[in-house]
Write a structure and sequence with these properties.
The chain is mainly α. The protein has helices at 9-13, 35-42, 52-55, 62-81; strands spanning 2-3, 21-22. A two-stranded parallel sheet has the order 1-2. It has one domain (2-81): 3-Layer(aba) Sandwich (Rossmann fold), CATH 3.40.50.1370. The protein has 4 helices and 2 strands, in the order βαβααα.
């Protein structure tokens, strides 16, 4: 099962599969460390796409996605340069 919604523990716990994966194409707001996230939180808005708890959990494969994209970009660069 692939879940591509707001990543919260509540949403993940509703999955019937212990092997459920959280996917996200980086960059992602998952905490309030970014300037924009801090500003929006001060205005009463939560712009996070996932909670930090889910983003760093065993269900998360966001790092793998980012690495795969990096290799795809390198391949496009090689193909267009030479």
């Amino acid at each position: 099962m692939i879940l591509y919604l707001l990543g919260t523990r509540d949403v993940i716990s509703k999955s019937d599969s212990p092997d459920m994966k959280f996917l996200h194409g980086l960059p992602a707001f998952h905490d309030f460390e970014a300037k924009l996230a801090k500003e929006q939180k001060a205005l009463g808005h939560d712009i996070r796409e996932a909670t930090d708890e889910v983003f760093r959990s065993r269900h998360s494969v966001v790092s793998d996605e980012a690495e795969n994209r990096m290799h795809a970009i390198k391949a496009v660069m090689v193909a267009t340069i030479g």
